[in-house]
C-alpha cells in the first residue's frame, strides 16, 4: 500500500520501512506516526516478513516530533489527543525484530523512536540527542526512561538537561547503539543483520525478543525465571531438535518455525 510519509519495500523476508519527509528532516507528525504504526503492524502480520528495518535518509533518521504541528497546542489539547501514545504502543506490540538503521540526526522523538526499535545500527555520521529542553519541553515518547536505562543516569541527565548531541562513536561506547559503520554501508549492514535473523527459527526469535525486553520491565529474579521457563519451553519445538541435531551432525540447521 502507498503511504504519504513512508516508503515501504518488502525484499525477500525483510520489510524495509523508510521515513520520508525530506523537507522536514523526517520530523514525526501525526500522519507519519499513524502510518508507521500501520506499516509495522502489517509487517508483523505478513507471514513472508521475518525481520524489519526502519531507516531515514543520510541526513536524518528523524529530527524529532514535528514542532510546527505542536507549537500552538495547549495542555488540554495534548492531554486529550494523547499524541503518539496509541502509535508507540502499537509499535511495542510488534513481535518481529525491528532494527533501526540511523544516519544523521536522531533527535527528540527521532532518538526515542530509534530506542523503541530492538537495536540500533548507526552510521558514523549519526547524531543522537534529546534537545526538547531547548523548546521548553521534555521528551514525550520514552526518552527520559529509555535513554537512562540504555546509557545510565549521568549521561542521560547530561543529554536531557544540556540538549547536547552525542556522536556515533560516543553512542556506541555508551551502549546506545550496537554497531557503527560508514554511512555508505549502513543499509547493507542493517539488511545483512535482518537476513541473519530471518534465517533463524522465528519461534526462537520471538522468544528472545520477549526475554530481552523483560529485562527492562521486571526484577532480575523474575526476569531470570522468565528466561529459564522459555528456555525449557523451547525444548518442545521441532526447531530445538533440528538446531541441536544439525550442530552434532556438523551441518546447517533447516528451521521450520515449529
Ligand atoms: N519539526 C518540524 N520541522 C523540522 C524539525 C522538527 N523537529 N526539524 C527540522 N525541521 C525542518 C526545519 O524547520 C526546516 O524546514 P524549512 O526549510 O521549511 O524551514 C527543515 O526541516 C530543515 O531544517 P534546518 O534548516 O533547521 O536544518 P539544519 O541542517 O540547519 O539543522 C537540525 C538541522 C539541527 C536537526 C535542526 O533542524 C533542529 O534543531 N531541529 C529540531 C530538533 C529538535 O528540537 N527536535 C525535538 C523536537 S520535540 C520532540 O521531539 C518531542 C518528542 C515527544 C513527542 C511526544 C508527542 C506528544
TrEMBL record:
EC numbers for this chain: 4.2.1.17
UniProtKB keywords: Fatty acid metabolism, Lipid metabolism, Lyase
SUPFAM superfamilies from the UniProt entry: ClpP/crotonase
Catalytic activity, as annotated: a 4-saturated-(3S)-3-hydroxyacyl-CoA = a (3E)-enoyl-CoA + H2O; a (3S)-3-hydroxyacyl-CoA = a (2E)-enoyl-CoA + H2O
Gene3D superfamilies to which the protein is assigned, alphabetical: 2-enoyl-CoA Hydratase, Chain A, domain 1 (3.90.226.10), Lyase 2-enoyl-coa Hydratase, Chain A, domain 2 (1.10.12.10)
Transcription regulation in keyword set: no
GO terms (BP aspect): fatty acid beta-oxidation
InterPro entries, alphabetized: ClpP/crotonase-like_dom_sf, Enoyl-CoA_hyd/isom_CS, Enoyl-CoA_hydra/iso, Enoyl-CoA_hydra_C
GO molecular function per UniProt: enoyl-CoA hydratase activity
EC class name: lyase
Family: Belongs to the enoyl-CoA hydratase/isomerase family.
Function: Could possibly oxidize fatty acids using specific components.
Protein name: enoyl-CoA hydratase
Amino acid at each position: 500500500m502507498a503511504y504519504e510519509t513512508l516508503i515501504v519495500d518488502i525484499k525477500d523476508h525483510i520489510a524495509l520501512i523508510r521515513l520520508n519527509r525530506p523537507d522536514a528532516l523526517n520530523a514525526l507528525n501525526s500522519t507519519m506516526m499513524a502510518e508507521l504504526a500501520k506499516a509495522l503492524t502489517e509487517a508483523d502480520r505478513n507471514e513472508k516478513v521475518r525481520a524489519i528495518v526502519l531507516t531515514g535518509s543520510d541526513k536524518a533518521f528523524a529530527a524529532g516530533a514535528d514542532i510546527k504541528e505542536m507549537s500552538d497546542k495547549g495542555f488540554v489539547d495534548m492531554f486529550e489527543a494523547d499524541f503518539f501514545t496509541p502509535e508507540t504502543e502499537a509499535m511495542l506490540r510488534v513481535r518481529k525484530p525491528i532494527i533501526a538503521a540511523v544516519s544523521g540526526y536522531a533527535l527528540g522523538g527521532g532518538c526515542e523512536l530509534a530506542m523503541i526499535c530492538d537495536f540500533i545500527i548507526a552510521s558514523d555520521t549519526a547524531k543522537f540527542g534529546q534537545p526538547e529542553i531547548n523548546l521548553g519541553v521534555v521528551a514525550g515518547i520514552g526518552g527520559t526512561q529509555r535513554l537512562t536505562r540504555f546509557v545510565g543516569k549521568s549521561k542521560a541527565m547530561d543529554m536531557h538537561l544540556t540538549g547536547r548531541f552525542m556522536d556515533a562513536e560516543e553512542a556506541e561506547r555508551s551502549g546506545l547503539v550496537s554497531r557503527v559503520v560508514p554511512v555508505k554501508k549502513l543499509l547493507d549492514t542493517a539488511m545483512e543483520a535482518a537476513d541473519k535473523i530471518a534465517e533463524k527459527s522465528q519461534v526462537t526469535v520471538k522468544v528472545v525478543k520477549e526475554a530481552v525486553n523483560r529485562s527492562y520491565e521486571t526484577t532480575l529474579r523474575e526476569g531470570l525465571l522468565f528466561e529459564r521457563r522459555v528456555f525449557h519451553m523451547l525444548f518442545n519445538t521441532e526447531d530445538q531438535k533440528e538446531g541441536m541435531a544439525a550442530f552434532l551432525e556438523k551441518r546447517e540447521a533447516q528451521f521450520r518455525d515449529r
